[in-house]
Amino acid sequence: MDSQANDALEDLRAKRENARLGGGLKRQEAIRSSGRGTARDRIGLLLDEGSFLEVDAFVTHRTDDHNMFLHQTLGDGVVTGQGTIEGRRVYCFAQDFSVHGGSMGEMHALKIAKIIEMAERAKAPLIAMWDGGGQRAHDGVNALAGTGEMLDRLVQCSGRIPMISIVLGPVVGVSALAASLSDFTILGEEHGQLFLSSPLETPEVISGEVDAAGLGGANLHASRSGIASLIADDEEDACELAATLLSYLPDHNMADPPEMVTGDPPTRLNETLQDIVPDNPNKPYDMVRVVEEIVDDGAFMELFAAYADNIIIGFARMNGATVGVVGNQPKVLAGCLDIDASIKAARFIRTCDAFNIPLVTFEDVPGFLPGVVQEWGGIIRHGAKLLFAYAEATVPKLTLVTRKAYGGAYLAMSCKHLQSDYNVAWPTAELAVMGAEGAVNIIHRREIGAVPDEEKENVRLRLVDEYKAKFGDPYVAARNGWLDDVIEPQESRLRLCRALNILKSKREWSPPKKHGNIPL
Questions:
Q1: Average pLDDT for 65-90
Q2: CATH number at residue 422
């Protein structure tokens, strides 16, 4: 090799080393000493060892600002590329906080837009690792132009490829909007923060009423805003959670979710279910325990566990196949549907429908939560989202009624009338317009009022029993074809696994339209 070729090779190696150093060794070490990893550290945690193929390592910013020109950095503050997770191909990017605080300039944003477009063309999942302080002021409106293109790519990918965001530092402004466009958002408990407006400009932070963590920290977004799907203990845990999520998802919307071999037989009986669910219909229990008893190996990956916890959502497997689980939670608000629960479940249902994941609904719902706050907050519109999502979904839909199924909430929770494919109930289930006690108080108020006080309770109890036998008994719904069967609790797994196996070939045709008008 001649000297000119040697010089070119040495120049390439030097430039690659500069790109790896990002904002410099000193800044990278400062990031590590704070308990955070650099962009390349994080990609190393996420991907299989040696699988990362970097793209656009030599891209730099194009600003005319003289000071910025003197500090050109290869890569412009974001590392992009492709690799594998447990052998599955993915595209990914990680913002580099050592370069201009991870701020998003024009070329930074265009690099991300390019990798998103590559992921869509390759029909491969995208994992985004966010850690940056919003749009770069030095780039002016150019930064917004690049960011706009990135946002457009993210929206175009939505529902086509799975997108997972991992937030491992403070993410501000439009970058926070971009992170929330993904299907699932994982926040690091200690350092993950999301703000639409900078804490430095927020009056409550300036006055000392709340700190940055209280305004946009991980726990806040997990319990109050409903943005955080999962909270990670540290950066390694965040990458493991992303890999676990990915294991339930297909590569793209035209593929089926991966199936896992399980030693848990589909014929396993659920003998403990009768002990979990109390005989008293007003006594609470934990629906998560019911789900874990029925699904493969008791493994249920619950999402948004701290937000709207009167409903549970998450992924599990049945006979090796991925299913999306939605269930009322009787131990919180008696399992009533409210605004937040309706929104939480509706988006998850639409996500499962986009990626061909069957839905299994565990129903025990006494109704929608009453009250001025709910009515003024738009429970009618938000409850309609849940109903719309179930009715629109074309994946296999299975429903198990464990106890109560009352009124409009019964209809909204994947009832037979919304084209659910397989609906069964336990013998203890009640399907009715409302609870027997409330119905009797309305229908027979004059009759009860006319009897002597000492006889009122006996008359009321007799009427309640008559109402349950006439309207609430699950066999009434079964006789009308609104339940496919009434089953013994211990047969729950067996029946659901068999139904899922039959429904694998389900294909549903609907008249052409651009899209429905969900009541957002």
A1: 80
A2: 3.90.226.10
The alpha carbon dihedral of 351, 354, 356, 361 has a sign of positive
**Same domain assignment for residues 162 and 300:** no
> What is the per-residue burial (b if ≥16 Cβ within 10 Å, else e) of 316-351?
bbbbebbbbbbbbbbebbbbbbbbbbbbbbbbbbbb
> Does some domain include residue 435?
no
Phi, psi of 288 (to 5 degrees): -60, -40
What pLDDT shows up at residue 66?
47
Question: Which residue did the predictor score with more confidence, 440 or 377?
Answer: 377
**Helix, strand, or coil here: 239?**
helix
Residues 302 and 367 in one domain: yes
Residues 239 and 387 in one domain: no
pLDDT digits (tens, 9 = 90+) for 197-217: 888 778 888 888 888 888 889
Alpha-carbon distance of 366 to 404, in angstroms, equals 6
Are 360 and 222 contained in the same domain?
A: no
Question: Per the structure block, which two tokens stand in for 247?
Answer: 């294991």
| pLDDT tens profile 384-440 | 999 999 999 999 999 999 999 988 999 999 999 999 999 999 998 988 876 666 666
pLDDT tens per residue across span 463-511 = 767 776 666 678 888 988 999 999 999 999 999 999 999 999 998 888 8
Checking if the pLDDT of 18 tops 80, the result is: no
Contact at 8 Å (CB) between 262 and 296? yes
Strands (E), 291-426: 300-303, 311-318, 321-328, 359-365, 397-406, 422-425
Among 345, 326, 315, 185, smallest CA distance to 248 is for 315
Residue pair 191/36 in contact (Cβ under 8 Å)? The answer is yes
| Residue partners of 239: CB distance under 8 A and separation at least 6 | 42, 45, 46, 166
Domain for residue 329, yes or no? Answer: yes
Residue 140 Ramachandran class (φ > 0 left, ψ -120 to 50 alpha, else beta): left
Please give the residue range of the domain that contains residue 355. 273-426+487-503
DSSP secondary structure string for all residues of 402-450: EEEEEHHHHHHTT-GGGT-SEEEE-TT-EEESS-HHHHHHHHTHHHHHH
Same domain, 99 and 241: yes
50 near 106, Cβ under 8 Å?
Answer: no
354 and 215, same structural domain? no
Q: Do the domain assignments include residue 83?
A: yes
Q: Are residues 240 and 277 in the same domain?
A: no
Q: Which of 14-28, 177-191, 465-479 has the highest mean pLDDT?
A: 177-191
pLDDT greater than 60 at residue 331: yes
Where does the pLDDT of residue 447 fall: very low under 50, low under 70, confident under 90, or very high at 90 and above?
A: confident
DSSP letters spanning 127-175: EEEE---SB-GGGTHHHHHHHHHHHHHHHHHTTTS-EEEEE-SEEETHH
User: Do 497 and 349 share a structural domain?
Assistant: yes
* Measured CA angle at 412 (ends 409, 417), to 5 deg: 115
Is residue 199 a part of any domain in this protein? yes
Q: How many domains does the chain have?
A: 2
